[in-house]
Design goal:
The complex is a heterodimer of chains A (632) and B (82). With 632 residues, chain A is an alpha+beta fold. Chain A has three domains: 191 residues, 4-Layer Sandwich (Aldehyde Ferredoxin Oxidoreductase,  A, domain 1); 167 residues, Aldehyde Ferredoxin Oxidoreductase Protein, subunit A, domain 2; 210 residues, Aldehyde Ferredoxin Oxidoreductase Protein, subunit A, domain 3. Helix content of chain A is 39%, strand content 12%. Chain A is built from 26 helices and 17 strands. Chain B contains three helices and seven strands. In chain B, strand 4 and strand 5 form a beta hairpin. In chain B, 33% of the residues are buried. The chains are: A alpha+beta (632), B alpha+beta (82). The interface between A and B is medium-sized, with 45 and 25 residues.
Chain lengths: 632, 82
């Protein structure tokens, strides 16, 4: 099968049985790979609700059709499981070197279930899979564990002490990159699985290599010339967003009580570049190179992303950039998600300020935070409570109104009261409070483009379109950052031109057109390589009749199937919501529009998605998408 | 005096983060910036997103806005991330 190895392995850690998991070529075509194919495997494998910490729960590590193909930004892999943080499906995406090495080992994916009696890691080559003792790796930091596994040319992923101690937001680390969100690392820990190592010499076949390479060349040109992916991201990294977020009231500050931070210049991308940047670093096959290399504890390490700067900086009123860099490094080493860490500490600080929990943590005081990372990872003292995440802590201390999560997953650093579409995205995202899975509409609402973040008009349709597009891009195996090159440069090059301003005024009013296109994807039976090269690349790799319409439909299929898994896990539509602060408190008292008008958008969202008023995909919609379910 | 701040790509390219300038209209300030810093063109400034005292301003009328002592004029460039 062109583009795939055609093999997915299933490993039961309880019985140590290793076998092939059959996936039809039709399912490969329908779900592409990555998070969507993982959802299909998880949906088919269970009859009912599954607990995160159970032998039954499975970890699905998936590559995708473009992984290892050398197309731009395609070294990524995905880990899906039932999240200990949300109780729902979590899919966590990662750069690093594991994905393409898994494919070189001749596997599209690995499914891990059961629970090992001893500490183990999994060794995968193109000649076989073995489960090996990991006593010598247990307790090690993520960099040391990877180093001790040896074989520098093979791909690795590991958990750190946080995963071993089942911190609910523990990450999986590959090189310095993290599958950070939702606690996938804790599920590894629950299964006594320290990590995996993979490599081999399998070479996948390709339908039309000549045209694929030509498309790659044009695609790289598109990415390197575009002002976001070719200039801003290489120059400033994602940290380059922080100043814009401050001025657009989008920067989570003091546990999301405000959208701007007086000391933002001390922690923004410009300061990071000027005072800390050593060099850029990106994933394999990435022409963007958004990663930063900086110094922490005398070592050159990965620098913080904008989310980390926001959550560990403005959200905690921490203006010490070196401290944020150190915290970011420690979170990577202990193996935990910086977003949830920052949000959980922010909640603890607010509860402390309100005298609801005497925990010794205070906004603006960061001296003890470095040790706090260790305490959480080791579940020591107060760290054991903070290891549970915002939802559980807020329930214990009666502080639900101050817990900044959606469905149990903490919000990213974008304060949604200045971006209605982002608010809807957080509320409806299958992962919970995730900006990317939520459609990342904030990039249209004040960051890249300047469509009004105050209006709800058209936002439901745009959110759905971008949620499904992001799903397809991720399932296809490409970094989501490649989609920024879709944004028309003409609008960004001169934001003050009359045509630009008229376009921004009109955009909210074309929600109906976007919804129509979304529901009639067959109208997009073509490829526009200069806008969205992904489906054409998949077509050249696989020989499938892939086009823009089918690509978006594949995303919608994956999104709906993930929703079905969440409903089976007990999700109710009442969970499609936001923290009370976001919907009931004005961000700025002089602006009556500065709260998320969620109810207004949610009804439209369900309708356009073809879901019932209760937020359940209808049989008709599922049939249209080719999703077979026994009962809804 | 007013404060003029540069962020994003323009601040990296010009190596200027913050300057103090005389009060006047936005048009006056733009002219003064380009005369003091020849690496920055008027086109670059006019094609940036402008914020005055944390309020986004656009359109031709923005050039006539009078900046009084203590005001802040900010130039930003579109950004993305994740």
């Amino acid at each position: 099968m062109d583009g795939y190895t055609g093999r997915i392995a299933r490993i039961d850690l309880s019985t140590r049985v290793i076998e092939d998991y059959p996936v039809s070529s039709r399912d490969y075509e329908k779900y592409l790979g990555g998070k969507s194919l993982a959802a299909k495997i998880i949906y088919d494998s269970f009859a009912g609700k599954v607990e995160a910490y159970s032998e039954e729960n499975m970890i699905v590590v998936m590559t995708s059709v473009l992984t290892g193909s050398a197309s731009p930004c395609s070294s990524r892999f995905n880990i899906s499981t039932i999240s200990p943080l949300t109780g729902l499906l979590i899919s966590s995406n990662c750069g690093g070197n594991f994905g393409l090495n898994l494919k070189r080992a001749g596997l599209d994916g690995v499914i891990i279930s059961g629970r090992s009696k001893e500490k183990v890691y999994i060794d995968i080559t193109d000649t076989g899979i073995s489960i090996k003792n990991a006593d010598h790796l247990w307790g090690l930091m993520t960099s040391e564990a990877q180093e001790k596994m040896g074989e520098p040319k093979r791909g690795k992923l590991v958990i750190g002490p946080a995963g071993e101690n089942k911190v609910r937001y523990a990450a999986v680390i590959s090189e310095e990159r993290a599958a950070g969100r939702g606690g996938v690392g804790a599920v590894f820990g629950d299964k006594n699985l320290k990590g995996m190592i993979a490599g081999g010499s399998f070479k996948m076949t390709m339908h039309d290599e000549v045209r694929f390479k030509k498309n790659n060349k044009e695609w790289i040109g598109l990415l390197t010339k575009h002002m976001l992916t070719g200039i801003q991201l290489p120059l400033l990294g994602t940290a380059g967003l922080l100043s814009m977020m401050h001025y657009q009231n989008l920067l989570a500050t003091k546990n999301y009580s405000s959208g701007s931070y007086a000391d933002f210049e001390k922690i923004n991308g410009e300061t990071l570049r000027e005072k800390h940047l050593i060099k850029n670093k990106g994933c394999v096959t990435c022409p963007i190179q958004c990663g930063r290399v900086v110094t922490a504890f005398g070592k050159t390490v990965k620098g913080p992303e904008v989310e980390t700067l926001g959550l560990l900086g403005s959200n905690l009123l921490n203006n010490d950039l070196q401290n944020i860099i150190n915290l970011n490094h420690l979170c990577d080493e202990y193996g935990m998600d910086t977003i949830t860490f920052g949000s959980t500490v922010g909640l603890a600080m607010e509860l402390s300020e309100k005298h609801m929990w005497d925990n010794g943590l205070h906004f603006g005081e960061h001296a003890q935070l470095e040790d706090l990372v260790r305490k959480i990872a080791q579940r020591e003292g107060i760290g054991s409570e903070l290891a549970e995440g915002t939802k559980i802590i807020s329930e214990k201390y009666d502080g639900r109104d101050f817990a900044m999560h959606a469905k149990g997953l903490e919000l990213a650093a974008y304060e949604p009261r200045a971006a209605q579409g982002m608010g809807l995205g957080y509320a409806t995202s299958n992962r919970g409070g995730c900006h990317l899975n939520g459609g990342y509409l904030v990039v249209l609402e004040g960051l890249g483009l300047n469509v009004s973040g105050k209006t709800t008009h058209g936002k439901a349709a745009f959110t759905i379109f971008f949620q499904d597009l992001m799903e397809a891009v991720s399932a296809g195996g490409t970094c989501l950052f490649t989609t920024y090159a879709m944004l028309p440069e003409i609008l960004m090059k001169n934001p003050n031109h009359i045509i630009t301003r008229i376009t921004y005024k009109i955009m909210p009013n074309i929600g109906g057109v976007v919804a129509f296109l979304h529901n009639h994807t067959w109208l997009m039976r073509f490829n526009l390589k200069s806008v969205l090269p992904h489906p054409y690349a998949i077509r050249m790799v696989t020989g499938q009749n892939m086009n823009m319409g089918r690509f978006v439909a594949a995303g919608e299929r994956g999104y709906n199937l993930e929703r079905m898994i969440n409903l089976r896990q007990g999700l109710k539509c009442s969970a499609d919501t936001l923290p009370k602060r976001m919907t009931s408190e004005l961000q700025r008292l002089d602006d009556p529009d500065s709260k998320v008008k969620l109810d207004k958008m949610l009804k439209k969202y369900y309708r356009i998605r073809g879901w019932s008023k209760e937020g359940v995909p209808t049989q008709r919609r599922l049939k249209k998408l080719g999703i077979e379910v026994e009962n809804i | 005096m007013i404060t003029v701040s540069f962020f994003g790509v323009m601040s990296v390219n010009s190596k200027i983060r913050k300057i103090e300038m005389k009060e006047g209209t936005v048009r006056d300030v733009l002219a003064e910036i380009t005369s003091l810093y020849p690496d920055i063109t008027e086109k670059q400034l006019k094609h940036s997103m402008m914020v005055i005292n944390k309020k986004h301003v656009s359109g031709r009328k923005r050039l006539s806005i009078h900046l009084a002592a203590g005001d802040e004029l900010v130039f930003l460039t579109p950004s993305s991330g994740g």
